[in-house]
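Open question from group meeting: does this chain pack into something compact, or does most of it stay loose? Before anyone orders reagents, we agreed to write out a predicted structure and look at it together. Recording both the input and the output here so the notebook holds the full record.
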Amino acid sequence: MQYEAGNYDVVVIGAGHAGCEAGLAAARLGAKTLMITINLDMVAFMPCNPSVGGPAKGIVVREIDALGGEMGRNIDKTHIQMRMLNTGKGAVRALRAQADKFSYQHEMKKTIENESNMTLIQGMVERLIVEDGICKGIITKTGAVYRSKTVVITTGTFLRGEIIIGDLKYSSGPNNQQPSIKLSEHLQELGFGLVRFKTGTPPRVNSQTIDYSKTEIQPGDDTPRAFSYETTKFITDQLPCWLTYTNESTHQLIDQNLHRSPMYSGMIKGTGPRYCPSIEDKVVRFNDKPRHQIFLEPEGRNTQEVYVQGLSTSLPEDVQQKILNTIPGLENVQMMRSGYAIEYDAIVPTQLWPTLETKKIQNLFTAGQINGTSGYEEAAGQGLMAGINAGLKALGKEELILSRSDAYIGVLIDDLITKGTNEPYRLLTSRAEYRLLLRHDNADLRLTEIGYKIGLIKQERFDRFSGKKQQVEGEKERLQSIILKPSTEVQEMIRSTGGSELKDGIRASDLLKRPEMGYEHIEKIAPSDVALDDDVKEQVEIQIKYEGYIEKSLQQVEKLKKMENKKIPENIDYDAINGIATEAKQKLKEIKPLSLAQASRISGVNPADISILLVYIEQGRIARVSNE
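Structure tokens returned:
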């Protein structure tokens, strides 16, 4: 029996990392938002590693925060450890935090519950309301009908989820939650192409049974750090992680039990993540390696559970216990939860527009692992953008699309919708051609104005940001105007850094460009009259020191923008274009690129095809102008 349960601007299905960002973004834009999840106790749950950030992913979290999202603020309030990775590698530096997974969940749920315009409920969505190719709401298992202007699906790994441990296989979402079966079947009925993917987790063990004396301590950074530009209170009482290794005994045991592994027995059909392989996969693929790293990561301050990072597996439970006991420090460890693989349905992401709205059904958006990605950060980035666009559309406002030169989030979405993915997609720094511009330190300079314009960044924060920007520009101009002469003080400072002494006067900005020089050296001999924050000093140093490289990247971006501005007509008939390869025509018709730049990134579309397409479009424009 169905009944009318309410009307909303936006409905978000799911409350994982994508769902939380989508719901909060839509609500904060002013859209009346409903978030519905299978289990209210699982809001923002971390079924896999208890961490946020890392290479590329950490920059995504900064970008989410710069646009007005929540993940950065939430992890800053609830982490147990914070570390900056790749500190010597400049453009690819990234922050990573160990989460207190329970505090993270509870804090995010509290934030959602306290958000005006937001309603959070428990329920199982089984069908969408679709009329004339337009999504107009949802229907739950209990018959509740919620009507809405837009819908965002963020179901993670729940769609027809199946957990696999050894020869055991059963229908389940992550962490033994209810799976979503009817909704997956309904998406197929609607004509969406689905793929079967797989991911997995390692065992969790009891901290009290670990011999930490046989492991290496991995402490957090002494310097207080944060993901969010709004964070002013820092957690200082950090918990360490610990490092140990597999060995020959571990690998022999795995080899002897490969016949019991569902990965090699044929039981697992879904494609797993290339960049997060199971331990059995690592042992087989990298059989020349004598050992693999294992990180022991506490799951929180108030639990003894420890996540065994690097030991993801779907081997039988008895084998998992034996594997653990071969590892130094874990000889007598008690396994509290066994590792498992989970198979699930994902949508083929080339069925999406850059806004993450589906091409097949208007007003329906998808975000997160349903789009074929792996990772909390990738999910949250997509959730934020889908929530923004669903909210903007419901309110009758213009859509927001980030380009590849704007953000890693832009790279992520463009990769998915243009190239698709045949395995769970992981964001890597190497996927971003403009990574020198997409840095950890400048996410606010790239995106905060955008967040402010759409209404997710409050005035007070924007005023602080504007002040920072002015200080950076002012200090750069000051250093460019100061001529440093080879005085005793200057020469002594230069000698202390191991640099070559001056023979003549030099601009302070040019001296800063020397590899051995930092802003802290320059301010000793040319101090500013204005007290500058550390992030202003950092920005001044980076922008001056890498000015040449940054300028070169910006020139490349300008070339890309010319291609992006060459729009492809919506009603173009690719079959009418002579000379384009058959494969290229098929891909262009399937993906429906919006610009020549996007068309050029499609696998199977070659430069020759783009040249022919450009000529065809230009001829069409000339013909239209002459007719007018």
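Observations to bring back to the group:
The radius of gyration is 26 Å.
The mean pLDDT is 94.
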